Amino acid sequence: MLLFSITWGTVSGWWTLVCLLLGVLYAWLMYRQPVGLGKSARHLLSVFRALAVFILAFLLVSPLIRSVAYDPQKPLILVAQDNSESIRLFKPAGFEAGQFVNNLARLKQELGDGYDLREFNFAGVLKDGLSGKFNGKQTDISSAVHQLNERFSNQNIGALVLATDGLYNQGSDPVYAARNLKTSIYTIALGDTVARRDLLIGNVNYNKTAFLGNDFVVEVLAEAYQAKGENIRLTVLEDGKQVFSQTDAVTSDNFKKIIPLKLTADKKGTRKFTINIAPVKNEISIQNNTETIYVEVLDAKQKILLLYDGPHPDISVIKQSIESNRNYEVKASLTSDLPSLKLNDYNLVVLYQAAENVSGALQNFIEKGKVPVWYIAGGQTNLQQFNNEQKAVHISAGHDQVQEVFAQPVAGFSLFTLSDSTINKLGHFPPLMAPFGDYRNGGNGQVLLKQKIGEVSTNYPLLMFSDENGHRIAVLTGEGLWRWSLSEYQNYGNHHALEELANQVVQYLTVNSNRQRFRVYPAKNVFDEGENVILNAELYNDALELLNSPDVKIDLKSDSGKNYSFLFTRTGQSYQLDAGTLPSGDYSYTASVKLGTQSLTANGRLTVKPLTLETRQTAADHKLLYQLAKQSGGQMLMSSQIGELAGLIRKNDNIKTIVYEDKRYSDLIDLKWVFVLVVVLLSAEWFIRKREGEV
Fold it and tell me: Which residues pair with 224 in a beta bridge?
């Protein structure tokens, strides 16, 4: 609905009468003397002239037209359906998955046109529409709720219908995520809460890396339900050979025990360990009796030297983030302690606002050995010295000032790959403090993060990389990583994004330390089932300069004998391959390229790990669903009660249409029809006078 009215702003409304009197006076003066016109024609022309003059005078006052639009917004009913495997595997008697999805789809028809219903399904990620496949390998309820809240923020969300068994194996507690969604939640309880006879591996805690010749401990949570009097027979196989076995008696119908396993890392590479609990009679599921883990056995650690001039909270954040990968060992040291360090022991140097006090010995070590360096600038950085030490970024500043800059990921960055969740988090992290000034790129690098100042996106680099004849450097032009660390933990309960970023930076800088001419390496050695397999390739000429003119081919071969052939894509100065999702298993790969008359090859292995998270819990958690519904003012329903849902939504007084009022002001002179009206009036007056012989 749209309504119009005239407002005078700061001008008195009496001017309308003044303008009208002016029009009448003008018409009277013009037609007061007898003219050669009939009386009726003279009166009509007087009206035309009076109206025309009135409108013109009225426009000079500059009145405003106020338009008021009323936009009714129907209540949004969001339906989120759990599409994970646990719904299909552990369903109660009489539950038909396909029929349930059909019943849920009928809600839109039952509610009618008074509601705007949107349907989604989720497992690890949120997707549009309902699904009857129930093939998701993991469940993240909190992420689904969070994404819905973000997608429909500032809209009239009437209710969330959440159909799930309450079991989640990814993300945070849904109860906390749901508190940010200010609407009623109606939960539909799926699955079976009755505990059945089952032996399973509830969880496995282990370090993903170990060092050659060392022992490492794996903790296995063994669980048994309704199996009192049975035995848990636990075995561990490595490459088909048994390396551990243990038997424990089940002493209750709700039995749990953490079993520590001591294993030996006696072979280099990615080692596969299969942990198995022997099944017992009448067990509901044997899929959760086996768990496969992969441990990367390393020959030696990469050593990293972190130098700084004075204490800063960023130092511990950088050290902890890098050392989250056990392949890296960080030595944090003051620049004043440089004389006591053995520089040749280190594969990478991180200079945290330390360029000013770097000794000649360190510079000689970096330049002659082409040792990779990660420069980090901030408020205490000597910019003149900083610009002299590296050529990737030049910062011109007249005074020592800093400003807040947000990270803005750059699309098309190709030196390495970050997960979508990490890229999303980086764009929402708090600002870093960067030197205030003008930034110029050296021209031989790639930018991963640009600076965003307030709401203004700039081309100033925040994190960039450069490779000068095989000497790799990274430059971070801001300090305050401790803010990112605190923010990520507060919002997500972990430091995964910061750790992934730090490890990818370090891996890129150190990956070519052996100066191989042709190198192919996966983004990580172990991929989860359903995750895209990413591989990177680098080719160097005799001067150790990157090039990507020749085609790079690769053959992936699974241990079952199936072959996959691909051609790498050129990205920047290197290569990258997105092989998509591959079946779970172990793969070997051979890549080849022809450089001039030389044929170069590179070999390696990677693993696609099967996901068994959905089989670790068999009993549904309806207590969680009841809590979600209660705290939001909604209600929990069983799957058989779905027909009652439409009536409950209609009876909820908080779910109603909201009418938004939109007021707008515009100048009356902007209306074209006003100009047309004046022209018509004056033209009609002239035409009648002309026809009657009056000019």
Answer: 199, 255
Give the separation between CA 470 and CA 368, rounded to whole angstroms. Answer: 12
The type of residue at 601 is T
3-state secondary structure of 524: coil
Q: What is the mean pLDDT of residues 600-610?
A: 89
Domain with CATH 3.40.50.880 in the chain: 302-510
For residue 205 the two structure tokens come to 């805690």
Cβ neighbours of 412 (radius 10 Å): 8
CATH classification (class only), 75-194+619-656: alpha beta
The pLDDT tens digits of the residues spanning 462-505 come to: 999 988 777 889 999 999 999 999 999 988 888 999 999 998 89
Based on the number of CB atoms within 10 Å of its own CB, is 165 exposed (0-12), middle (13-18) or buried (19 or more)? buried
Classify strands 157-164 and 215-225 as parallel, antiparallel or unpaired.
Answer: unpaired
* Tokens describing residue 593: 């390229």
pLDDT at 637 > cutoff 90: yes
- The domain at 518-609 falls in which architecture? Sandwich (2.60)
Lowest mean pLDDT among 73-87, 528-542, 563-577, 623-637: 528-542
Name the least confident of 84-98, 355-369, 524-538, 629-643: 355-369
As its CATH architecture, domain 198-297 has Sandwich (2.60)
The predicted structure's pLDDT at residue 153: 87
Residue 362 binned pLDDT confidence (cut-offs 50, 70, 90): confident
CA distances (Å), 450 to each of 289, 390, 391, 407, 447, in order? 48, 18, 17, 6, 7
Residue with tokens 């691909």: 566
Give the Cα separation of 140 and 118 in Å (integer): 19
The sheet with strand 126-128 has its strands ordered as: 126-128, 116-122, 76-82, 157-164, 184-189, 635-638
Residue 619 CA: distances (Å) to CA of 87, 133, 282, 439, 576? 11, 20, 16, 58, 43
| 5 has pLDDT over 80 | no
Q: Is the pLDDT of residue 247 over 90?
A: yes
CATH fold group of domain 302-510:
Rossmann fold (3.40.50)
CATH 2.60.40.1930 residue ranges for the chain: 518-609
Please tell me which residue, 435 or 30, carries the higher pLDDT value: 435
Of 344, 345, 350, 342, whose CA–CA distance to 323 is shortest? Answer: 350
The residue-averaged pLDDT of 391-395 equals 87
Q: Are 223 and 200 in contact (CB under 8 A)?
A: yes
* Distance, C-alpha 355 to centroid of its chain: 34
**CATH 2.60.40.10 in the chain, residues?**
198-297
Please give the structure tokens belonging to residue 117: 């219903």
* Selection from 312, 290, 318 nearest residue 502 by Cα: 318
Q: Where does CATH 3.40.50.410 sit in the chain?
A: 75-194+619-656
User: Minimal CA–CA distance to 544: which of 509, 514, 576, 517?
Assistant: 517
* Phi–psi pair at 536, nearest 5 degrees: -115, 150
The DSSP call for residue 521 is E
Q: What is the mean pLDDT of residues 342-359?
A: 80
Residue in the block written with tokens 């003051």: 334
